[in-house]
Design brief:
Aspartate Aminotransferase, domain 1, about 450 residues, alpha/beta, Aspartate Aminotransferase, domain 2, five-stranded mixed beta sheet
């Protein structure tokens, strides 16, 4: 089989460089690029740039391409809808695809029945609306969120997001009644403890928060990513989310699961909550739901979803019919191709390689994640565990110069994360991992093996 990676020019090539000059003159500076290559086309797990260079895509549009670039069933569904109409606004002349997708998500989401769904455009927009639903139902103002969390870039979503630079600095003030607690980041425990002897001190800390920081009866909801996304793909202990949910339920506090990045088969189940024994009151998803088109959803208990009055939620483009048809095709493909099983297979395949890498390079401090949502945390030394963002930059640069697109994560920017399309072949995946291994070899000095930590 021919290799997927084919480089015709040094990266970035001359056409990409020319486009970057135009971009710098015309586009706002604040928009970031993980790589300097400009896309021309993409298919499956392969992206081709304007210079004819072919790359394996381990970024997946930041988690939007679980079903692969231009999946044929998704394209067929989109084309069929384009032949009918592109937009009417569901609030003006409603249409069946919105209802069909809501019905599908109501069947699939691990939320207590009866359920209802609201559709939006982006993860941040869905998060904001989940907060509105929670406040309308509970008649309470406060929201609890987590350190190292990311929930979007709109103002309330930024208040819930943890990382200051580059996301929050300079955009203050943020909406009030937002309270942050530590996540179960066992490799960097905020309480200096070790699981399981810690007895989930980070989860039970919530009771102390109710005594010292915000009254439980003032809290509408807790919002949490079952596995941290931008925070580094940190997967908590199996009983962590369940413990938090039990504490919240006793206080009448709703649980919002932000599955924008974890959802649509990425972790080995359609939603990560399914592996954690939790049925959230509200579940948010986006990214891969639309198969490359902007689409997001909030699915929740019907009584919560019906709390706002008629006209209180909505949006001009939310639940666009073309995006809805794409999402229905994505969900069909996930089931037909068993992408949940595929995610588990890819995760296991990665872990086999990653354990060998960690033994060779102790500056891989930890391996994080769940299913095919995996990452490597880079440190300066095993004793201090100081984050090493420079190593991640060097690894990323080596990768794209050798035909592999990757992105970083972590509050300190010291984590390499993998978001390859789940339709990637084993041969393509191994080819990409070979480039990543070479990047590690080029960027990290070999050391004698030391005690290492794996969080899988």
């Amino acid at each position: 089989m021919a290799k997927s990676i084919q480089l015709r020019t040094p990266v970035p090539g001359p056409k990409s460089q020319a486009l970057m000059r135009r971009r710098e003159a015309a586009v706002a500076r604040g928009v970031y690029h993980a790589t300097p290559v400009f896309a021309a086309k993409a298919e499956g797990a392969v992206l081709e740039d304007v210079d004819g260079n072919r790359f394996l895509d381990f970024a997946g549009g930041i988690g939007c391409e679980n079903a692969g670039h231009r999946a044929r069933p998704v394209l067929d569904a989109v084309h069929a809808q384009l032949d009918r109409f592109m937009h009417t606004c569901f609030s003006v002349a409603p249409y069946e695809p919105y209802i069909a997708l809501a019905e599908r998500l109501n069947r699939l989401a691990p939320v207590p029945a009866p359920k209802k769904t609201f559709l939006a455009n982006t993860g941040a927009e869905a998060v904001e609306n989940a907060v509105k639903f929670a406040r309308a139902f509970t008649k309470r103002p406060a929201i609890i969120c987590f350190e190292d969390a990311f929930h979007g870039r709109t103002l309330k979503a930024l208040a819930l997001t943890s990382k200051t630079h580059p996301y929050k600095a300079g955009f203050e003030p943020f909406p009030s009644d937002t309270y942050r607690i530590p996540f179960a980041y066992c490799y960097r425990c905020a309480f200096g403890k070790t699981y399981p002897s810690c007895q989930l001190a980070c989860a039970h800390h919530l009771d102390d928060v109710f005594k010292r920081t915000v009254a439980a009866e003032s809290v509408a909801a807790m919002i949490i990513e079952p596995v941290l996304g931008e925070g580094g793909f940190i997967a908590p202990p199996a009983d962590y989310l369940k413990t938090l949910h039990e504490i919240c339920r006793k206080q009448g506090i709703l649980l919002i699961a932000d599955e924008v990045q974890t959802g649509i088969a990425r972790t080995g189940t359609l939603f990560a909550c399914e592996q954690m024994g939790v049925e959230p009151d509200l579940l948010v998803t986006a990214k891969s739901l639309g198969g490359g088109l902007p689409l997001a959803s909030v699915t929740g208990r019907a009584e919560i979803m019906d709390a706002p009055g008629v006209g209180a939620v909505g949006g001009t483009f939310g639940g666009n019919p073309v995006a809805c048809q794409a999402a229905l095709a994505v969900l069909d493909l996930v089931e037909r191709e068993d992408l949940c099983g595929r995610a588990i297979h890819l995760g296991d395949r990665f872990m086999t390689r990653a354990r060998d890498w960690q033994a060779r390079w102790p500056r891989i401090g930890a391996i994080h994640g769940l299913g095919a949502m995996r990452s490597l945390e880079m440190i300066r030394d095993a004793t201090s565990r100081r984050p090493d963002a420079e190593a991640v930059k060097a690894i990323g640069k080596y990768c794209y110069e050798h035909g592999l697109l990757t992105i970083s994560a972590g509050s300190s920017g010291n984590i390499v994360r993998l978001l390859m399309p789940l339709v990637i072949t084993d041969e393509q995946f191994d080819e990409g991992l070979d480039v990543l291994a070479a990047a590690l070899a080029a960027s990290l000095p070999a050391q004698e093996p030391q005690r290492t930590t794996i969080h899988a």
